[in-house]
Amino acid sequence: MNVGIVGLGLIGGSMAIDLKARGFASRVIGVENEKVNAAAAMKIGLADEILPLEECVAAADILVLAVPVDAATRLLPRVLDMIAGTEKIVIDVCSVKQSMCQVAYGHKGRDRYVATHPMAGTEYSGPWAAMPGLFDSRACIFCDVEESSPKAVREIERLYDALNMRVTYMRSDAHDMHVAYVSHISHITSFALALTVLDKEKDEKHIFDLASGGFSSTVRLAKSSADMWVPILAMNRDNVLRVIDTYIEKMKEFRDAIDAYDSDKIRELIDEGNKIKRIIR
Fold first, then answer.
1. Structural contact between residues 143 and 172, judged by C-beta atoms closer than 8 angstroms
2. What is the gyration radius of the CA atoms in the chain, in angstroms?
3. Sign for the pseudo-dihedral over CA of 169, 235, 135, 87
4. How far is 88 from 62, CA to CA, in rounded Å?
5. Predicted TM-score (pTM) of this structure
């Protein structure tokens, strides 16, 4: 099995490591336009070789688009043009799915595309961030599988099984709404908290000395790449705006209760929030 990976950063590079180590891929072919990243990927051993896109598509049985979602939406129709009528398969790993499925809709090669979102990652990016075991025991969402060839879906299920992921199936519009609430808002609030602290604490030494584990864990996502998150937030705009509005309402409830010295209301809000323990341990 030859696997081509377009974008050898955190997700693409981590997939490359485990697909090769676990015997799913006999050969990993990378596509990486950034020369520094390409050299790093080869030095680290993420790919057996780096090729231009057209040569990678010609050589690969499965092609993974592991680039930001705006780039992936431009690349997908081009790749489908190349693989239509063949047994090759293309997948993406973007966290916005409806826009990906829309650009593929009606294409003659649509059945060769499987829309996936492995729910894994860290705040780091680039080939240096790639690591083994990143996907172990995490969820992967497959979207709009009825538009894909059943044989292609089974092959990609086998790929994610090699990554030790559990697969869930969902409509692309439902996926984008849900990830806005469980993923995208986490990053927005982390960015906003970082901006708040940096604006108030001009002395960086104070931040360093006083920042506890709670602050560090809450704000760590603020280290995430703008190249990845700007297109995500833009392309999932409507869902993101709804979740931001809900978040602002909840923040206002806290603000009003604190402003009014309303200890009972503060306790009520905290107790209500504590119910998340039933879901996340």
1. yes
2. 21
3. positive
4. 6
5. 0.91
209 pLDDT tier (thresholds 50, 70, 90): low
Question: What CA–CA distance (Å, rounded) separates 201 from 121?
Answer: 29
Place of tokens 């009972």: 264
* Portions of the chain given CATH number 3.40.50.720: 2-170
175-278 has CATH 1.10.3660.10 classification: yes
* Contact partners, residue 84, CB within 8 Å, separation at least 6: 107, 108, 109, 112
- What single letter denotes the amino acid at residue 123? E
What is the homologous superfamily of the domain 2-170 according to CATH? NAD(P)-binding Rossmann-like Domain (3.40.50.720)
Is pLDDT at 215 greater than 70 in this prediction? yes
* pLDDT surpassing 90 at residue 114: yes
126 exposure class (CB count in 10 Å sphere: 0-12, 13-18, 19+): middle
